[in-house]
Amino acid sequence: MSDDTFENGQARTGKVRIDPASGVPTTGHEWDGIEELNTPLPRWWVWTFWITIIWGVGYTIVYPAWPTLSGGTQGLFAWSSRTQVASDVADLQTTRGPVLGKIAAAPLDKIESDPELLAAARMVGKVAFATNCASCHGAGGQGAKGYANLNDDDWLWGGKLADIKQTIEHGVRWDADKATRSSAMPAFGRDGILTPEQIAIVADHVRTYAETPDSDAPTPQGEKLYAENCASCHGVEGKGNPEMGAPALYDQVWLYGADKPTIVARIANGGGAVMPAWKGRLDDTTIKALAVYVHSLGGGQ
Q1: Is the overall model pTM greater than 0.90, yes or no?
Q2: Where are the transmembrane segments (predicted)?
Q3: How far apart are CA 90 and CA 78, in angstroms?
């Protein structure tokens, strides 16, 4: 070994020799007593490495890659994921065009009487529902707390085809749409309309309509408070009013829950759920197909 050594165990360059343990020549480099063996990478690995570099350079030439002051290089193929998506959408529209044309031309109330049109509308509507509605109403339209179940025949705003289409188009309490469903329940507690004691009495009376297991018998005070504050929307017998989006109270179908604390909170705080207006987001044909699909889930009137 040569005497080219650095202090504190730094690298030292010496003469090449054969390592006695492996029989491999050394490079002449030593680090803290450890010598470097001269074992080059396999030739196939080196060629593969250079091929990937050449491939990478070629890729940046063929496809968009390098940023520029004006945006970026477009590549020899002028390809982009955005143009590919547009092309795929155009191909899909071409494929679905005849079916969509039939749905668009058919009157809404005639689609379900035509097996071919019904199948087509359900196919288109199912895709639209999964993409836009399932996140709130569930994959099968079963709903959740605060989100309506679309499988039963209990509808806040009406379950006929035209009613469903109207709701989808303009939403519920969607301020950006002037034709939206817009009624809301007053906040009887927050606005001081009723005292907490009166709200509790009304909650007990409301629960008698649905005959919940732990509900008490109606009381004259409860009947009086209900008649003065609730009957104008929910009906004298608690059957609701689709024109106002007021739910029925007698059928044991509850959007937020049937326990007394939940009902007390709804009476005290009022308000109502919000649904987006899909007109403008979805084309008219898709909305029509979506209305047919929802209507055919089992709860359509």
Answers
A1: no
A2: 44-66
A3: 18
